[in-house]
TrEMBL record:
NCBIfam families named among the record's database cross-references: EfeO, PRK10378.1
Keyword Phosphoprotein among UniProt keywords: no
Protein name from the UniProt record: Efem/EfeO family lipoprotein
Keywords carried by this UniProt record: Lipoprotein, Signal
Main location: other
PANTHER family xref list: IRON UPTAKE SYSTEM COMPONENT EFEO
One GO CC term, this protein: cell envelope
């Protein structure tokens, strides 16, 4: 049975109901008082739940278009739907079975796209953008919808350990460096910049929530990270279809020049390296 979502204005419920391990996991070596972590972690859970709600809604529309055989609509909804998953990957990846079935790429399977276990977004991407067809995609669409709903259900009751939350910022930027800049993530749809932005959004949300605590430990570190986030966002903004409408999305990744790919590599790599020290700064290693 799906666990009802808590009221989004009630942090007391979240702190009491889902952060029961907070004092246990954070007390041993925390540079900040464990109770200071409750608010940021609770706010992050709200952020994750908000994005999961959007993921469920958008996946419903995306998979309905596939089942209806509406290729143009399905292709248009592919990237905007994935953004919500990309933002919360550090939490989604706690459920390895679902992460694999939702977001694995063909490279992860011995038989590639022909492997019967290859499912999820990227299997649908191959059908929609490589084959330019919704034929045979109904089962994959239904499977994706079921997996997304199961993820939503599991996260409702999940305790968010602070070290996992804080470490998620670095994990997201490391993923950008590893798969987004190379262009291998969305190799058929070329919608990599959407995923890129989703990862940056998720990493920045975590950083901003813990920024006041980090600033107490190292103000220069905080300023440096903020500057690097701004550099990455500025380059991404150059490829928005409409600078005044973030929902309009991005140009194809094929349009990103080699110079801009190199320009992104520096700030992304530095961000990943700096954010990897955030847990230690807060005493959460």
């Amino acid at each position: 049975m799906k666990i009802p979502k808590p009221c989004k204005t009630s942090k007391t419920w979240i702190a009491a109901g889902t952060l029961g391990l907070l004092s246990v996991t954070a007390t041993a070596q925390a540079a900040v008082a464990p109770e200071a972590l409750v608010g940021p972690v609770a706010d992050y859970k709200l952020y994750v739940l908000d994005n999961l709600e959007q993921l469920v809604t958008h996946t419903e529309d995306f998979t309905a278009a596939i089942e209806a055989g509406d290729l143009a609509k399905a292709k248009a909804l592919y990237a905007p739907t994935r953004v919500y998953y990309e933002r919360i990957e550090p939490i989604a990846e706690l459920f390895a079975d679902l992460d694999v079935s939702i977001d694995a790429r063909e490279d992860d399977y011995e038989q590639g796209v022909e492997d019967p276990d290859f499912t999820g977004f990227h299997r649908l991407e191959y059908g929609l953008f490589h084959d330019a067809s919704t034929d045979g995609m109904k089962t994959y669409a239904q499977g994706l919808m079921a997996d997304v709903e199961e993820l939503d259900s599991r996260v409702q009751a999940l305790t968010f350990p602070p070290e996992t939350v804080v470490g998620g910022a670095a994990a997201l930027m490391e993923e950008v460096a590893a798969t987004k800049i190379s262009g291998e993530e969305d190799r058929y749809s070329r919608t990599d910049l959407w995923d890129f932005q989703g990862n940056v959004d998720g990493a920045r949300e975590i950083f901003e929530l813990f920024r006041p605590l980090a600033a107490q430990e190292d103000a220069d570190f905080v300023a440096r990270v903020e500057d690097n986030f701004d550099d990455v966002e500025k380059t991404l903004a150059d490829y928005r279809l409409d600078p005044d409408d973030p929902q309009a999305g991005f140009e194809s990744y094929d349009e990103v020049s080699d110079a801009d790919r190199r320009a992104l590599t520096g700030p992304v790599t530095v961000l990943a390296e700096d954010l990897s020290t955030l847990r230690g700064l807060l005493g959460l290693n």
